[in-house]
Every structure is written in structure tokens, then in C-alpha cells.
Amino acid sequence: MSIGRTGEMRTPNRRSLRRAAGLTAASIAGAFSLGIAGASTAQAADVVNTFKNQATGNCLEGIEDGRARSYPCVGTSTQQWNVHQWADSTRELKNLKTGLCLDDSNAFGLRTFPCNATPFQSWYVKRWNDGTIEFKNQATGRCLDDSAAYGLRTFPCNATPYQSWY
């Protein structure tokens, strides 16, 4: 019901009902399109992974004293990493057991350290055709590297099996 120009009560006609329905539908469609756009820019959900080196067969492990090491894969929470993707597509690797993040810096080298969302704890992930991945630190530009000769470390990126992880 509405009030006409002369003050009389009027019932809505079909045209005004259709117009109102159209406006409502357009408003709903607009809201959904904003929601979809927002969803496409949202960050991916965190996942838990274990990372095994292609050359050594050892897994990336976080130790409670702040060390990171490679160790034979045994499936414990010290070898499980919560992977969080940042808006810039870098990843934070947080150890499930210790709650510490994989961190690399010129001053301290490779270690696990309380998570602080800095480039020292952000890793670029490059996927190779063989299904392995490379981790490159955002701050240092070095790659996660594991070998029998030198152990787990970061080293200039060189696309070798020492820097490839499953």
C-alpha cells in the first residue's frame, strides 16, 4: 500500500511490483558478485605438509631448540609443517610440533624462530615439471638445500636435487 498524490490509499500495481522485484534481484546479484570477487582474492586455507628432499631422502624437521635439520622421515609432528600462503604468494612454514617458523637470515643462517611474518620467514615456492618444489627465501634469495656433505642449509639456488623437495 502507498499514499497517492491526493492522499488516497493505493494498492501497488503489477508494474511497480515488477520494478521492486527487479531492483531487489539486482541488489542481490550485486551483493553476490562482490562476494565472489572477495572470495577470489581471499588467501588459500593453510595445509599441513611433510617435505622430503629429492637427493637425500630425508625430511625437513624442526627441533625445539630452534634448529632446523634433515632427518630420516618418521612421520612425527617435528616433520610436519603448517603452510600458510601470504597475499604475495610466498609461504610461511610453521612447524607443527614447535610452533616455530622456518627462518633464514645472513646474521643467523637457517633456523626455526618464533613466527613474525617477516621476509626472513617467507618462502617463494617454485614447482618443477617432475613434481618437486624449490623453496627460495624472500629475504636472502637463497634456496633450501640438503646434502650428505653439508647437511640442511640455504645456498644459492642452482636447480639441483639437493634443492628439490617432495
Question: How would you explain this protein's 3D organization?
Answer:
This protein is α+β, with helices and mostly antiparallel strands. It folds into two domains: 2-41, no CATH class; 47-163, Trefoil (Trefoil (Acidic Fibroblast Growth Factor, subunit A)). It has one helix spanning 14-41, and strands spanning 2-3, 9-10, 47-49, 58-62, 68-72, 81-85, 91-95, 100-105, 109-114, 123-127, 133-137, 142-147, 151-156. The strands form six sheets. It has a three-stranded antiparallel sheet, with no helix packed on it. Strand 10 (123-127) and strand 11 form a beta hairpin. The radius of gyration is 27 Å and the shape is globular.
Widest sheet: strand ordering: 3-6-7
Inertia-based shape: globular
Please give the CATH architecture of the largest domain: Trefoil
Q: What pattern of helices and strands is seen along the backbone? A: EEHEEEEEEEEEEE
The total number of structural domains is 2
Low-pLDDT segments, ≥5 res: 1-42
SS element count, helices: 1
Radius of gyration: 27 Å
Question: SSE layout and pairings?
Answer:
Elements: E1 2-3, E2 9-10, H1 14-41, E3 47-49, E4 58-62, E5 68-72, E6 81-85, E7 91-95, E8 100-105, E9 109-114, E10 123-127, E11 133-137, E12 142-147, E13 151-156
Antiparallel strand pairs: 1-2, 3-6, 4-5, 6-7, 8-9, 10-11, 12-13
Give the tags.
166 residues; alpha+beta; Trefoil (Acidic Fibroblast Growth Factor, subunit A); 2 domains; three-stranded antiparallel beta sheet; two-stranded antiparallel sheet; 13 strands; globular; Ricin-type beta-trefoil lectin domain protein; Ricin_B-like_lectins; signal; lectin
